[in-house]
């Protein structure tokens, strides 16, 4: 029967080994040739867009890369789906954008800020998402083809 | 209660209860917004309500864990806390940081990073607060007469939780790496080190409530936390499938996160078996309900419902939908909320001397809150599965789908009302116990 000492060895050994593998895999997945985060596509404008994204807690309603609050649409493929003009209008609107009765906060962004956020969304579109981009709602290309 | 300084736990628990009520209130604000009643939008938009709801959860659970540690560590180490005054300072500073963060969220002062919205400036105060807490616990433990496995596992959980807060403070220009390291905090907390804290509290409660030999309970505690880390650390990969990192995580995350339910299954079997084996029947039935309930509901909520969408093939469709909210609610409730409510139910009569061990209000609180939460989970689940099919399979527009599934949020609100009634009853029972007193010293030593 398992002794307490053996049980402790199982805990400590398992933890150390899996943690080392975890660190190794982290290094591997960001290494050259394996990295698929579209890192080279990050410009100053994209960074400004990300700052705006965070300062206004956009993922408190929306999702991006599938992460967020499920209250407002997924924005991973939003430029492809809606086009730049529409997004700009939403971001710069001085009154709450109100699609189908669900209100968005009226941020009233400046033109530059709206463009920064659009650059951020465009950068997101260039990331290799292991196929998530093909199911994320609704498939922009499919829809356009059908219309 | 064996040591006077254990009384400090009471105030951490009371603070927890206050935040829990607020958390539920903000939950209702979100629920009503989803069915079209968003009259508070101008003052409390959804993103504010959401950040407050999830952050209050984290803070009330942490306050509960801290209270648990202040109660358990003196008893395990067999000495008074090294400083009661500093423990109160720590509580007040925790309250100040928490309240400042929550107020800030109403004025667009935050970092929009899911679960870690606390602004950077306040992060540093969190670090100071946690260091003070850990200092008090570690000093008490090491000056104590004995160092039990239960105390060590609990302390290790708290220590690692503090260390893991650091990756979440690193700044990144890339949304992907930001998210990657954010999960080091969030995932490795809730599916890693918090399970150590849960395991430590569970082990303490089982020793007290069942009378089974400490050596047996603590041996299995090691096995359980071993299984937790063995599966949970590499299981972090299930957050990396579709956020823009290497495909290797599809395999690693898939395999190891599929093993994660084993730790919770072991926890449930362990608790039930120890209860059956135990010869001592502690009169505090309510505490026993919450203790066994926590072990069982965490298996269902964290283990089974987590497994339901953890495989990459499934997660491709469920990632970023309400299916996650389904799993999240029952998992947090079972694993962490219930274990905090269990230790409170056990410790309160000991600290106040009022032995309301088996009140009908206490029993009703248990059943109403559990049935209510189960109903909420089902409502989220049905809404989530419908969303997956309509949006991801049939390519319907997001808002069209939201209109279709809004009926499930009416059900959610009804179940949440039942849940909230249970919580109000629990807090009523808490209040009825009165304040902690030195007269309660050693009152339970005969049990």
TrEMBL record, chain A:
The keyword Mitochondrion does not apply. GO terms for molecular function: electron transfer activity; heme binding; metal ion binding. The chain crosses the membrane at residues 9-30. It comes from the Bacteria. The keyword Lipoprotein does not apply. InterPro entries: Cyt_c-like_dom, Cyt_c-like_dom_sf. Residues 44-125 form the Cytochrome c domain. Keywords: Heme, Iron, Membrane, Metal-binding, Transmembrane, Transmembrane helix. Pfam families: Cytochrom_C (PF00034). This is Cytochrome c.
TrEMBL record, chain B:
InterPro entries: Cyt_c_oxase-like_su1_dom (IPR023616), Cyt_c_oxase-like_su1_sf (IPR036927), Cyt_C_Oxase_1 (IPR000883), Cyt_c_Oxase_su1_BS (IPR023615). One of its GO terms (cellular component) is membrane. Its main location: membrane. GO terms for biological process: aerobic respiration; electron transport coupled proton transport; respiratory electron transport chain. The keyword Lipid biosynthesis does not apply. The chain crosses the membrane at residues 12-37, 57-74, 86-104, 124-142, 149-166, 186-207, 219-242, 248-275, 287-310, 330-349, 361-385, 405-428. It is a multi-pass membrane protein. Keywords: Electron transport, Heme, Iron, Membrane, Metal-binding, Respiratory chain, Transmembrane, Transmembrane helix, Transport. Gene3D superfamilies: Cytochrome c oxidase-like, subunit I domain. It is found in: Membrane. Residues 8-447 form the Cytochrome oxidase subunit I profile domain. PANTHER family: CYTOCHROME C OXIDASE SUBUNIT 1, NITRIC OXIDE REDUCTASE SUBUNIT B. This is Nitric-oxide reductase large subunit.
């Amino acid at each position: 029967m398992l002794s307490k000492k053996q049980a402790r060895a199982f805990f400590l050994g398992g933890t150390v080994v899996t943690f080392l593998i975890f660190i190794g895999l982290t290094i591997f997945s960001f290494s050259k040739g394996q990295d698929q985060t579209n890192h080279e596509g990050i410009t100053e404008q994209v960074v400004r867009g990300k700052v705006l994204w965070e300062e206004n807690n956009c993922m408190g309603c929306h999702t991006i890369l599938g992460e967020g609050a499920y209250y407002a649409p997924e924005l991973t493929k939003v430029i492809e789906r809606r086009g730049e003009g529409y997004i700009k209008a939403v971001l710069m609107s001085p009154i709450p954008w109100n699609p189908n009765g669900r209100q968005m906060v009226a941020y009233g962004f400046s033109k530059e800020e709206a463009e920064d956020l659009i650059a951020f969304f465009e950068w997101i579109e260039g990331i290799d998402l292991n196929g998530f981009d093909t199911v994320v709602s609704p498939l922009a290309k499919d829809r356009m083809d059908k219309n | 209660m064996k040591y006077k300084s254990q009384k400090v736990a009471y105030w951490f628990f009371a603070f927890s209860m206050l935040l829990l009520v607020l958390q539920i209130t903000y939950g209702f604000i979100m629920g009503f917004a989803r069915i079209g009643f968003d009259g508070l939008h101008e003052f409390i938009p959804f993103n504010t309500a959401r950040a407050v709801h999830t952050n209050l959860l984290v803070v009330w659970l942490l306050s509960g864990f801290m209270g648990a540690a202040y109660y358990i560590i003196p008893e395990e180490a067999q000495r008074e806390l090294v400083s009661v005054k500093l423990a109160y300072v720590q509580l007040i500073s925790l309250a100040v940081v928490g309240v400042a963060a929550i107020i800030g969220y109403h004025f667009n002062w935050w970092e929009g990073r899911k679960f870690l919205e606390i602004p950077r400036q306040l992060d540093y105060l969190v670090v100071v607060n946690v260091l003070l807490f850990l200092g008090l616990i570690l000093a008490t433990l090491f000056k104590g007469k004995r160092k039990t496995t239960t105390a060590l596992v609990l302390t290790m959980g708290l220590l690692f939780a503090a260390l893991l807060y650091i990756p979440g403070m690193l700044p990144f220009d890339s949304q992907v790496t930001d998210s990657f390291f954010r999960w080091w905090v969030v995932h490795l907390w809730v599916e890693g080190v918090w399970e150590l804290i849960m395991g430590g509290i569970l082990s303490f409660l089982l020793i007290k409530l069942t009378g089974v030999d400490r050596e047996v309970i603590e041996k299995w505690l090691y096995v359980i936390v071993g299984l937790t880390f063995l599966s949970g650390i590499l299981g972090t990969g299930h957050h990396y499938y579709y956020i823009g990192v290497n495909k290797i995580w599809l395999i690693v995350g898939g395999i190891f996160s599929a093993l994660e339910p084993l730790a919770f299954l072991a926890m449930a079997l362990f608790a039930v078996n120890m209860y059956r084996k135990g010869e001592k029947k502690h009169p505090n039935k309510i505490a026993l309900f919450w203790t066994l309930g926590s072990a069982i509901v965490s298996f269902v909520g964290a283990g089974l419902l987590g497994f339901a969408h953890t495989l990459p093939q499934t997660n491709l469709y469920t990632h970023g939908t309400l299916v996650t909210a389904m799993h999240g609610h029952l998992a947090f409730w079972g694993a962490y909320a219930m274990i905090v409510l269990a230790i409170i139910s056990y410790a309160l009569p000991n600290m106040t001397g009022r032995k309301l061990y088996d009140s009908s209000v206490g029993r009703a609180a248990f059943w109403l809150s559990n049935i209510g939460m189960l109903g909420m989970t089902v409502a989220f689940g049905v809404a989530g599965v419908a969303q997956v099919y309509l949006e991801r399979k049939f390519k319907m527009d997001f808002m069209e789908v939201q209109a279709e599934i809004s009926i499930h949020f009416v059900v959610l609100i009804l179940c949440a009302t039942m849940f909230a009634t249970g919580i109000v009853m629990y807090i009523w029972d808490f209040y009825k116990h009165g304040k902690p007193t030195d007269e309660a010293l050693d009152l339970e030593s005969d049990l």
